[in-house]
Amino acid sequence: MTSDTIAAVVMTGAGRPLEPRRFVAPRPRPGGAVLETIASEVCGTDVHLHHGRLAGVPYPIIPGHVSVGRVLESNGPLSDVDGREIRPGRLVTFYDVYGTCDGCWHCLVAKTPTRCLNRRVYGITASADDGLLGGWAERIEILPGVRLIPLPDGLDVLDFMGGGCGLPTGFHAVERAGITLGDTVVVQGSGPVGLNATIFAQLAGALRVLVIGAPKLRLEAARRLGAEEVLDITEETSEERVRWVRDRTSGRGADVVIEASGNPAAVSEGLEMLRDGGRYVVVGQYTDAGDTALNPHRHINRKHATILGCWGYEFTHLHRALAMMVRYNGRFRWRELVTREYGLADAGRALEDMERLRVVKALIRLER
Amino acid sequence: MTSDTIAAVVMTGAGRPLEPRRFVAPRPRPGGAVLETIASEVCGTDVHLHHGRLAGVPYPIIPGHVSVGRVLESNGPLSDVDGREIRPGRLVTFYDVYGTCDGCWHCLVAKTPTRCLNRRVYGITASADDGLLGGWAERIEILPGVRLIPLPDGLDVLDFMGGGCGLPTGFHAVERAGITLGDTVVVQGSGPVGLNATIFAQLAGALRVLVIGAPKLRLEAARRLGAEEVLDITEETSEERVRWVRDRTSGRGADVVIEASGNPAAVSEGLEMLRDGGRYVVVGQYTDAGDTALNPHRHINRKHATILGCWGYEFTHLHRALAMMVRYNGRFRWRELVTREYGLADAGRALEDMERLRVVKALIRLER
Amino acid sequence: MTSDTIAAVVMTGAGRPLEPRRFVAPRPRPGGAVLETIASEVCGTDVHLHHGRLAGVPYPIIPGHVSVGRVLESNGPLSDVDGREIRPGRLVTFYDVYGTCDGCWHCLVAKTPTRCLNRRVYGITASADDGLLGGWAERIEILPGVRLIPLPDGLDVLDFMGGGCGLPTGFHAVERAGITLGDTVVVQGSGPVGLNATIFAQLAGALRVLVIGAPKLRLEAARRLGAEEVLDITEETSEERVRWVRDRTSGRGADVVIEASGNPAAVSEGLEMLRDGGRYVVVGQYTDAGDTALNPHRHINRKHATILGCWGYEFTHLHRALAMMVRYNGRFRWRELVTREYGLADAGRALEDMERLRVVKALIRLER
Amino acid sequence: MTSDTIAAVVMTGAGRPLEPRRFVAPRPRPGGAVLETIASEVCGTDVHLHHGRLAGVPYPIIPGHVSVGRVLESNGPLSDVDGREIRPGRLVTFYDVYGTCDGCWHCLVAKTPTRCLNRRVYGITASADDGLLGGWAERIEILPGVRLIPLPDGLDVLDFMGGGCGLPTGFHAVERAGITLGDTVVVQGSGPVGLNATIFAQLAGALRVLVIGAPKLRLEAARRLGAEEVLDITEETSEERVRWVRDRTSGRGADVVIEASGNPAAVSEGLEMLRDGGRYVVVGQYTDAGDTALNPHRHINRKHATILGCWGYEFTHLHRALAMMVRYNGRFRWRELVTREYGLADAGRALEDMERLRVVKALIRLER
Question: pLDDT tens digit string along D203-245?
């Protein structure tokens, strides 16, 4: 049923070229499964991985944390979260976080599972020495306990991959924001996370969403996805951007601002855009890009602000984001976020296009 | 019933000496009242006012925002929030905020009354040209609509004044912190706000409170008020202080940190003391003391932190804080926070002692 | 500018016929205004008023709590919540609650203004002896402090009146429900409140809304307003209705159920439709229609249910609901909820049609 | 190290006498352990079990869900939630819920683990045919994955057992109540859950707690544990009890009422005791004792009430309750709740004393 060896792309270290490598075809461990990869994401995290901006990455790794595959083989019965059986041949995706222990202080007492110390992520903190634990490969090994999600009826591979990891991340950021009906929301950043935040902010009750970002390609996507207005960050100064928001909010600032840019300076600028008593979500600072200056009196205390960091996402966010995608796939065309598809051999080029923002999303698509 | 003129102390401008001045004895406006002052607070805000660190202060002002007086005369019936009549002769305090409109966008739509643009505060944003609207005077004019609170049975003037404006401010900060049963709480700052936060954090369910501050006099007060341990900020470096907290929290940091210091640098230090998923309240940055450097990745995003600015207090905080003081006045000796009492003529010295941290709280006590 | 007397319709007591009556044309009190009535609602509350099912109604009253009028005259400047001037000639509606004191324990301490003991409502708890305080009249008197809202650009009278009092009530119910992205929501009842809850549940992030009600006319409206499926309550038993919901929710029940029916038995039935850990909002029990049997073990405790009563609405709900109506008036055609318009002289017939559910909404429309 | 067989007490079915039985001494499964039992609780649940009032109980069972034992043997290393090793000889208790899957819809999507369908509880839903999974036995088998908690320094067996399962249950109820500083709390029921709710309500910020229950023995315990006033339910009518609460709350009712009585009629009575906008927690309806009549208009809708069912408890509740017990063991003398200790052979008498309310808590104490 499986060939003897399979192809994969390996990131061997920070700054080094991607490397094609062949692996022995894996067999599922008890309780696990093996997928035949259909598509895998190239995202901003992969650019960060390539630059060595994340701590604790066990290079060499096989990138690709969000993927779709077909169940090739399982070792024991598989089922989804509703207890329905998943049979070989089914198209699935999976929650890319594994190892969360449900047994430590963070999981059990504080109930902050995204901060569990045992947490590992496919394509990011899983070493290629431990198996095919990333999507830039012809096969993906599903470890026991990893949560499979059948691709729902009505969605095809491109729909889902258009969302990618930005889908549950943007969803989580919007949930964290506690949007109430009628809020004016500003999104800083027009990458996949910012665009998904733009979508889910509307679905969660925002009156309107204003997006500040670049380049044009992404701002156009923001408009198509319902942003009332967009502002090109390269054409205005910070002060003008703040004034642009205040001019649209009776001078008060926005009820909610979601930072999805990755630029530390966005934080103080975003707080200037926030109304007194508003909520500010920081979701874009995935890597350490340095410090920023903040004024605790003006930005936090007198503003009576609520600032909410948002790390990773939980299964519930992916599960519910996917259900919403099924329902709203007509109104929001996630698939159009995939600017271009690449073969496994072209992963390096995909990474480069992503880095240079030539694409909204890049996809590794395996031929069949 | 009243003398023809009454004595008051006036702050005529930033950096200028306090000035004794006599005013025509006021008569109550319709719906208002006049109090004979018994005692009025000297607090950190008064020091800020004297240094000109607050914007929009309409000098000359009569300082003293939290006071106790005896109802001398009213123009129409007076009642408390429960509808019970307040008669002349009764000892009362009052909610020092007036002018909040219950009619603007902040009051009605966002429901953030402490950010109402029409909000004024006795002793801070009320001009002496408009009347006796501060407690450093023999009489206080109660404007129509100002909420009077009879001093409850079981509390005397000193008990209440020992709480002062730090009582509802610390209460508000603790409410904003959303303390849950079993939390470890760090309080940065051992002034009146920090000490009241120490008290209310315990009453709200904290397992233990650790206080970091200075000088010794205040740290001793913190210990008497139930702090499990205290740390003298002058004897340790920032890194040592962070380690001190982590050593006491399984290396994870505290569940809640409350900043009540007024030092911008406390914010980044406090976030280092906070556990992942914890809550950080900024209540001490009442004036603009400059910027501080923050790392959005490490301090907010990856930490999944919740940072909560806390501005002013609402009537509900004062009302409920006072009820708690009545019940817990035995366990926590608020009156002992008043290190020293001064006559009206000695207001300047009181201010100086406050500024130099020679006292925990200073009180203007009018002779009778 | 005004005629000497104006026409109105008066409800003189429970069960008595409506009575046309002429009043002296009112002049605005200081801070108040007079509106020339354009349209006023006939709603389920008016039917209850006519049956004498509300306590404390000071008959005779002029019904009509939600109305649109044109500012005829004011006594002093008028402005909206943003401080913008409202000039004579402007089309406005207003927050129908007045008298809320912002001074009592409920307003200030508990912050539950819809339970303020001084709260009065136009058209419901205002006596005709006190003035033109209801919309079934050619003029409406705006008392000082009543909050005017200019009809926004892009909405005409019929759009707004199609929402009527069901708009902010349904909005409030949905806010109280705490809907999270992806929730399945059941709405019990297809009257104006249920239909607006159907709309706002979707806008607040519901994956889908299932509506149970009658008659066909209203269920068809529910479908047009986005309900995924509807069930005619007259065609199924209670057990079948519960099964109908469970069949659509993996057997678990809905995440959120909103009761908007007014039938006490709906409460236990609705709790059977609710999943474990779900939220149940009771907004339809506006009058006392008797008791119902509940099983505290099965319906509340073991289910770990959250049950939320929802009384009245605050200004913020009306303000934000209106903003959402402006934005979503294309997707949801509120104006189509007005089945029929009646002249002032036909108010009795409008009331009867409302009572017999021959219309979704009835409107008193004054000729000009 | 272990004898060949060990003694246990078995409940063979509803209404049948308890039966002494000997079991082969168990050896730990991989990842599991065996405890030498020191003490085990006799609680109201055991009375319910004996009466057959719980559904799905796999008789025969070994009762005793909350216990303390000494680690006799483990199969692999053991550790607590902080990762600290637990060695043989250590006194421990354990979270009595096992089997929760962290994999189903309830665990992962809704995050309501106390409603996980795979959830099992020591001493309640574990069959004696499956091993020594209850505390009324000389040994307790700790299954792999069951969370051990070392008995903290400063607590002895009697302190902890005085809390028993009422400790985390009362803790959970108080957390669910969302008590805010200054709340007046009524507790209905003076059994172990009600008494622990009385304690934790105070620790969570209640101004005062009023307890309604019986018999005298338990009401005296309530007073010792800080209840401001108590009312003997056998001496007053329902109307008098409601009036008693209203007389103590300015006629408004309590901010929070916690039902811990098990009597369905307590629910409507408790809602009469609740103020408008208050919170009502139902934690005592652990078994189905029938329906009660409720008035949805008066009790829920107009009251703008929040009613919160509370099922079971999570690890976090037990963990944090225990930490609070360590700190507050001087102020609240949990150990005094144990009215009497019984040998294993006297389990039947303990059960009977519990049923007849002759004791606050009964304890099975194994001789050593």
Answer: 999 999 999 999 999 999 999 999 999 999 999 999 999 999 9
* Residue whose pair of structure tokens reads 């959250």 in the numeric block: C306
Q: Which residues contact C58 (CB under 8 A, 6 or more apart)?
A: C125, C126, C127, C129
B83: chain C residues, CB-CB within 8 Å: 104
**CA distance readout (Å), C278 to A317, C271, D239:** 17, 9, 32
Question: A touches which chains (3+ CB pairs under 8 A)?
Answer: B, C, D
Does residue D84 contact residue D92 with C-beta atoms inside 8 Å?
Answer: no
**Closest chain B residue to A172 measured between Cα atoms?**
B304
As given in the structure block, the two tokens for residue D315 are 């690890």
Q: Which residue of A has its CA nearest to B283?
A: A301
Q: What is the sign of the dihedral through the CA atoms of B323, B328, B330 and B332?
A: negative
pTM here is: 0.97
Instruction: Answer for the pair B47, B351: CB distance below 8 angstroms, yes or no.
Output: yes
B72, B88 in Cβ contact below 8 A? yes
**Distance (Å) from the alpha carbon of A247 to chain C's nearest alpha carbon:** 14
Structure tokens belonging to residue B13: 């401008």
**What SS3 state is found at B132?**
coil
C-alpha distance from residue D210 to each of A122, B154, B326, D281 (Å): 54, 21, 17, 15
Could you tell me where the DSSP H helices lie in A211-342? 216-224, 238-247, 265-272, 315-328
Residue A38 tokens read as 């259909």
Angle at C225 between CA C219 and CA C228, to 5 degrees: 75
Token reading at C61 = 């009253």
Token readout for D318 is: 């037990």
Crossing angle for the helix pair D192-203 and D166-177, nearest 10 degrees?
50
C-alpha distances (whole Å) from B232 to each of A345, B44, B244, B262, C281 are 61, 20, 11, 16, 51
Provide CB contacts within 8 A for A196, sequence distance 6+: A163, A166, A167, A169, A170, A171, A321
Q: Which residues pair with B280 in a beta bridge?
A: B257, B307
Angle in degrees, 0-180, between the axes of helices B44-51 and B347-355, rounded to the nearest 10: 100
Distance of CA B325 to the CA centre of its chain: 15
CB contact under 8 A, C315 and B145: no
Coil/strand/helix, residue A192: helix
Report how far Cα D263 is from the mean position of its chain's Cα atoms: 17
- Residue of D163, D167, D96 lying closest to D135 (CA atoms): D96
Q: Are B41 and B66 in contact (CB under 8 A)?
A: yes
* Residue D2: Cβ-neighbour burial (10 angstroms; 0-12, 13-18, 19+): middle
CA–chain centroid gap for B158, Å, is: 15
Query: Do residues B158 and B338 touch, judged by C-beta distance below 8 A?
Result: yes
Put simply, whether D175 touches B (Cβ < 8 Å) is yes
**Residues A154-203: pLDDT tens digits?**
999 999 999 999 999 999 999 999 999 999 999 999 999 999 999 999 99
3-state SS, residue B167? helix
Residues of D in contact with A108 (CB under 8 A): 81, 147, 314-316, 319
**Residues whose CB falls within 8 Å of the CB of residue A363, separated by 6 or more in sequence, listed in order:** A39, A40, A41, A42, A158, A161, A338, A340, A341, A342, A350
ipTM above 0.95, yes or no: yes
What's the pLDDT tens digit per position in D86-137? 999 999 999 999 998 889 999 999 999 999 999 999 999 999 999 999 999 9
Q: Does B105 touch chain C (CB under 8 A)?
A: yes
> What 8-state DSSP symbol labels residue A179?
-
Q: What's at B302, amino acid-wise?
A: R
DSSP one-letter string for A68-79: EEEEEEESS-EE
Give the Cα separation of C245 and C241 in Å (integer): 6
C280 residue type, one letter:
Y
Residue A368 has pLDDT above 80, yes or no: no
